[in-house]
Design a protein that fits this description.
38% strand, 180 residues, 15 strands, rod-shaped, mainly beta
């Protein structure tokens, strides 16, 4: 059996029909980590050979394996091999943001620095923070949380030491999760 965790908290289980015997129905068996295996579906028609387990039957964030048990009227066949473990999604949880494009920093005549970047192509970004590293010093946040647009920020000259060398990075955030 193969199992895929869906973003809405459901899991889709698919399988291949056995090559021997007659199957009149299937049952999906679920094993939550540390718990006994149990039937999570009623008897399913022989086709299609996939079934989506509703999110109401699963615990968000829990790890499960799934098996498919073939039935022939009243006789159970051996269940399939267990699927790889899947972790059930928490519906509505934003995916962690990916890495934004490389930060570009431009020194301005007034002593400020404008940092710009491109948004990550994966995940959800709800804000950014600008990180600055002065030569020989630890990296630190030089801005508060910034709106996702525009993808540029000017660091005021009062935040910088004139003549010092800095590198800048952009940290993407979504609600509670920091991206790379």
């Amino acid at each position: 059996a193969q199992a895929v965790a869906n973003a809405d908290g459901s899991v889709t289980v698919s399988w291949s029909a056995p090559t021997e015997g007659t199957v009149t129905s299937y049952v999906i068996l679920a094993t939550r980590e540390g718990q006994p295996r149990h039937a999570i579906s009623g008897r399913l028609e022989p086709n299609p050979t996939s079934y989506t387990v509703d999110s109401s039957e699963l615990i968000p964030g829990a790890s499960y394996t799934f098996q498919v048990g073939p039935l022939n009227v009243h006789t159970h066949g051996p269940p399939s091999a267990a699927s790889a473990a899947v972790v059930v999604a928490t519906p509505g949880a934003a995916q962690p943001p990916g890495r934004p494009g490389a930060a570009q920093a431009v020194a301005n005549a007034d002593g400020s620095v404008t940092v710009s970047w491109s948004a990550p192509t994966e995940g959800t970004v709800t804000s950014y923070v600008i990180l600055a590293t002065r030569e020989g010093q630890p990296r630190h946040a030089i801005s508060g949380r910034l709106e996702p647009n525009p993808t540029s920020y000017t660091v005021d000259s009062s935040e910088l030491i004139p003549g010092a060398s800095y590198t800048f990075q952009v940290g993407p955030l979504n609600v509670h999760t920091h991206g790379p």
